[in-house]
Design goal:
Order of helices and strands: EHEHEHEHHHEHEHHHEEE
Strand content: 15-25%
Shape: globular
Bound molecules: adenosine monophosphate
Helix content: 25-40%
Strand order of the largest sheet: 1-4-3-2-5-6
Largest sheet: 6 strands, parallel
Structural class: alpha/beta
Number of strands: 9
Distance between the termini: 38 Å
Length: 292
């Protein structure tokens, strides 16, 4: 097997992608911001299975961070990421600099409207237009046949699906299940910010989603009642500060008054200075190792 190739120039990545596609090969693509963990690895392994060539991008995208957010401090470890990517069978890492992606004069944005507005869109104005702009650019550069994205960032997946459909992008968007630690915490690069105490407190997110799902599965379908359960469970954790706790239609992200199997229960919670998100589809529920 040939070794992993690291590309930092847009032109080289495009030329390489064009050559691969001209040979009739498919390209599976996993966009990331690096500091790779088992959640990213699950996407890469599935991408390895689906594509002739597997490309992963590592790019901490400045335009999706707001003023005062953690762009500067976002964890980075390219050396370790290369090992993880290699283990997962990645063929090409695309790791451009910010000035390579946004050269002087850059002024074009991709903006998905309705589904970008609630939840993280309300708490982080401009975030999703930064995400859709970079993902559109990455799709144009990498020319993937399919792109694998995590359900952990459920709204992001919804927004990108909408963008790809609305703009007739020739790429299949594949959503992948959330990978959790043995105790239920959804894996995230931002978990690295948590102190030992905060790490324990962070379990309130998966606990609250689980409690709410159990109530739904026992026959309760009122969104008000289920939301109360969600918030009450979160508030039992003293370190938790709720950003949002909502029940919405999993496709349109509109609020629901009656919950069904296709309702997403979505959370953003601050534990100390760290903002964590998590979600579950009501009809599916969640499990993790220590719960089984
Ligand atoms: P990020 O590096 O955080 O931007 O994430 C890159 C991709 O990995 C996105 O599609 C995320 O949704 C996905 N991802 C992040 N954490 C997880 C997880 N715990 N399980 C599954 N996918 C994840």
């Amino acid at each position: 097997m040939s070794d992993i190739k690291i590309i930092s120039s847009v032109r080289e990545m495009r030329d390489t992608a064009r050559l691969i596609r001209s040979q009739g090969k498919s390209v599976a693509f996993v966009p990331t911001m690096g500091f790779l963990h088992e959640g990213h690895a699950s996407l890469m392994r599935e991408g390895r299975r689906l594509g002739d060539i597997l490309v992963t991008s590592i790019f901490v995208n400045p335009i999706q961070f707001g003023a005062g957010e953690d762009f500067e401090s976002y964890p980075r470890d390219l050396g370790r990421d290369l090992e993880t990517a290699r283990d997962c069978g990645v063929d090409i890492i695309f790791a451009p600099t910010a000035s390579e992606m946004y050269p002087k004069g850059f002024q074009t944005w991709v903006n998905v409207e309705k589904v970008s507005l609630p939840l993280c869109g309300a708490s982080r104005p401009g975030h999703f237009r930064g995400v859709t702009t970079v993902v559109c650019k990455l799709f144009n550069i990498v020319m993937p046949t399919c792109a694998l994205l995590g359900e952990k960032d459920f709204q992001q997946l919804t927004v990108i699906r909408r963008m790809a459909a609305d703009l007739n992008m020739d790429v299949e968007i594949i959503g992948m299940p959330t990978v959790r630690e043995a105790d239920g915490l959804a894996m995230s690069s931002r978990n690295a910010y948590l102190s030992a105490d905060e790490r324990k407190g962070a379990l309130c997110l998966s606990r609250a989603l689980d409690a709410t799902c159990s109530l739904y599965r026992s026959g309760e379908s009122s969104a008000d009642v289920l939301r109360t359960e969600l918030i009450d469970t979160l508030q039992r954790e003293p370190s938790a500060k709720i950003d949002y706790a909502e029940l919405r239609d999993a496709e349109t992200l509109e609020e629901v008054s009656t919950v069904n199997d296709r309702t997403v229960i979505a959370l953003a919670v601050r534990i100390g200075a760290t903002r964590l998100i998590d979600n579950v589809i009501a009809g599916r529920g969640i499990t993790w190792k220590e719960k089984c």
